[in-house]
Write a structure and sequence with these properties.
Blueprint (H helix, E strand, L loop, with lengths): L9 H8 L6 E7 L10 H19 L5 H12 L2 H4 L5 E7 L2 E7 L6 E5 L5 H8 L4 E6 L4 E6 L4 E4 L9 H5 L1 H14 L13 H30 L3 E5 L1 H10 L19 H32 L3 E2 L2 H9 L3 E7 L6 H16 L3 E5 L10 E5 L2
Parallel strand pairs: 5-8, 10-11
Antiparallel strand pairs: 1-2, 1-4, 2-3, 5-6, 6-7, 9-12, 10-12
Length: 370
């Protein structure tokens, strides 16, 4: 079975939740992006795998160890894999299943064997409010990024997303590319721009729009819909207005960064993106708090955990807000995580927000459907 790094989404969580027969092996560990800290990461991974082997032998003595640990051992001994660490790692192994998730946040170290996968760290990751994606339309090719206030990483576009204009239009573009390159020195795959040769300008404008429509459709289907994250456009100003005009992506944010992402380092791109997103993030925090206050005034909200738990069991919780700091308090985290899972299974929205934006005093508030 081949190791597979996967994009995390609510749909993926739902699929993993449906696995209800063990053994299910769940491994989480903090990882490090740079040396010398990352030197210890594969060593710690091997120690966690050792713990899984002992647990599997104890809980499922009839299980064949080789079927579960072949890919884990291979991962442990793969230098290329450990050369691209982010901040956290999750590996889930079951009968015929092997799932690897790199995370942009740290996770607590854990290695557990149960009848179901342990998914709480992955749910918490998805419930964070500050995450976003960037669609970069450079002069050479399309790039996608995902990040939060603290980090930004390039992600691999799904195969259906056309990385270049040539990939989207193929032979339709061949004649124009030949003419354009002879005038401007631009090579295949370059996004056309205005260079003053009017006899070809109309065709160039039409092809640019066709390409943007193909990109918009593919990114919506294969990235925005699965992630449900805000999407920031990064491209030259002359392309920004056109892309926004043709886009049908409801996650695309108004305006954009107005710069070729190829001209920026990853650090600079992250700083510009968060400067762009922070006012929207703060506005969302305000709206979440105000909506709860308004709901509570109508008898449709509470910060009493016992009352919220009962409402969640009845399927009445529409939105559940959790204070991030409270999730790190061991004495309360299990009950809160159980509540979070229940609300999610009942179709409610769960959001984790910082303490300074949290309404109520308990670290847990909910708005009700009725």
């Amino acid at each position: 079975m081949k190791s597979m790094e996967m994009k995390l989404s609510h749909e993926k969580i739902a699929v993993l939740e449906s696995v209800d027969s063990g053994p299910c092996l769940s491994l989480y560990q903090e990882t490090h992006r740079t040396s010398p800290d990352n030197i210890q990461d594969p060593i710690r991974f091997r120690n966690l795998v050792k713990g899984l082997k002992e647990s599997l032998k104890e809980k499922y003595p009839e299980a064949k160890q080789g079927a579960f640990f072949k890919d884990l051992d291979s991962l442990a001994n793969n230098p290329e894999f450990w050369a691209h660490n982010l901040d956290g790692l999750a590996v889930l192994v079951g009968a015929g299943q092997f799932h690897v998730f790199r995370l942009q946040r740290t996770v607590s170290e854990l290695a557990v064997v149960e009848n179901v996968f342990f998914l709480r760290p992955l749910r918490r990751y998805l419930q964070s409010v500050d995450r976003f994606q960037i669609l970069g339309l450079g002069s050479q090719e399309l790039q996608l990024f995902e990040g939060n206030r603290n980090s930004l990483d390039k992600i691999i576009a799904e195969p259906e997303v056309p990385i270049t204009i040539t990939a989207a239009l193929g032979e339709e573009l061949a004649e124009i590319e030949t003419s354009q390159s002879s005038h401007s020195g631009l090579g295949p795959g370059t996004i056309p721009s205005h260079y003053g040769y009017s006899d070809k300008q109309n065709e160039i404008d039409i092809d640019t729009e066709k390409y943007f429509r193909a990109v918009d459709k593919a990114v919506l289907r294969h990235h925005s819909n699965p992630s449900a994250l805000p999407l920031i456009l990064a491209c030259l100003p002359e392309h920004q207005q056109l892309f926004h005009r043709i886009s049908n992506n409801p996650f695309l944010q108004e305006d954009g960064l107005g710069i070729n992402p190829e001209a920026l380092s990853l650090k600079d791109l992250k700083e510009r993106a968060w400067k762009f997103m922070e006012p929207k993030y703060l506005k969302k925090m305000t709206i979440l708090a105000e909506d709860f206050i308004a709901a509570k005034a109508k008898g449709l909200g509470s910060d009493d955990i016992a009352l919220i738990t009962k409402a969640a069991a009845d399927g009445r919780v529409e939105t559940l807000l959790l204070e991030a700091d409270r999730l790190d308090e061991e004495e309360s985290v299990k009950g809160i995580e159980d509540l979070s899972e229940l609300v999610g299974k009942m179709g409610g929205l769960v959001q984790i927000i910082p303490a300074e934006h949290m309404p109520g005093k308990t670290g847990v508030v909910a708005s009700y459907r009725y």
